Amino acid sequence: MNINLLKEKYLELIKMEDTDDGIFDFGDLLLESDDEKVLEFHYEIIKSTKDKYLLTDLLTFFVKRKDKNKVGNFLVKKYDKEQNVSLKSEIIKILGEIKYSGTEELAVKEIKSPEYELRYASIIVLGWIGNSKDLGYLNERMLNDPEGTLRQCGAAAMRQIWFRHKSTKLKITQYINSAIRNETNPDALTGMIITIQDLYRKKLGIKESHYGDLSGDVTKAKEKCIKELDKILS
Q1: What is the pLDDT of residues 142-160, one digit of tens each?
Q2: What total number of domains does the chain contain?
Q3: How far apart are the first and last CA of the chain?
Q4: 96, 133, 174, 177: which has the fewest C-beta neighbours closer than 10 Å?
């Protein structure tokens, strides 16, 4: 792979009025090789771009690379040195999407980070790749994270684990039963209620659209959910 050619094509791309016009041709060229120099170039243009739409495409190209283990090893090294929290969170998500072997360990390490973005990335990645032993980490966040949106994510990540590991149903139910009773944040409650609705195929008052939009009276739904949990666990 000719790095100079890549650099030339990238300069042509960012000069375009709309990078969508050339992104796929550039992406094909960028993904021709997983050579170390190409990975370095790919990482550097991710760090330098100010265009959020281009950034999304460039991050996605890392997921599409062929040698997942080589890419994972490269990104873990970058992660250890990276100071940009947003980029670190994106690295965790890329590692999760390519199912890199060290991702679970990294997510568990960062799940209590003082940085919101790192906690968020760690929670959702454990939902993607985790199993029953990771439920405890998610439960701790569902109970204790200071952000209601991340307590919601903790419940949602448990649901993702259940999709792959049906034997986790009772443990997840017990965790949510303990968490929901004292929870008052609408976001967090919605995540818990949706999870129980899915696990038990019940309609408790929260609707989820095909696009992930949620609606319903959370207060009434909480009451219904607690009554249902009392029945299930009695």
Answers
A1: 999 999 999 999 999 999 9
A2: 1
A3: 64
A4: 133
